[in-house]
Amino acid sequence: MKHASFAGQRLVIVQPTGVNDAADGPPLIALDILGCRKGDHVMLTSDGSYAREMTKHENTPARWSVIGLIDQRRPA
């Protein structure tokens, strides 16, 4: 990624999941300031204003951002 707004940002690949952790759609690239690790369950937002705030760049092409790490999950 060569866009100036990504300089110094951590990008992660996130696989959306549905019931029973089955993949639900294609993987997404998200900004991550929380430091999630492989295998973590996270919450995402597609809020553009949040991405602009994180990158401090008004014209960032970022769409997805990690906004939370899930500690525990209840069975479906």
Automatic annotation (TrEMBL):
Entry keywords, A to Z: Bacterial microcompartment
Pfam assignment, any one: EutN_CcmL
One Gene Ontology CC term in the entry: bacterial microcompartment
Top-rank lineage group of the source organism: Bacteria
Subcellular location: Bacterial microcompartment
Cited PROSITE patterns: BMV
Main subcellular location: other
InterPro entries from the UniProt entry: EutN_CcmL, EutN_CcmL_sf
This protein's name: Ethanolamine utilization protein EutN/carboxysome structural protein Ccml
Organism (species): Rhodopirellula maiorica SM1
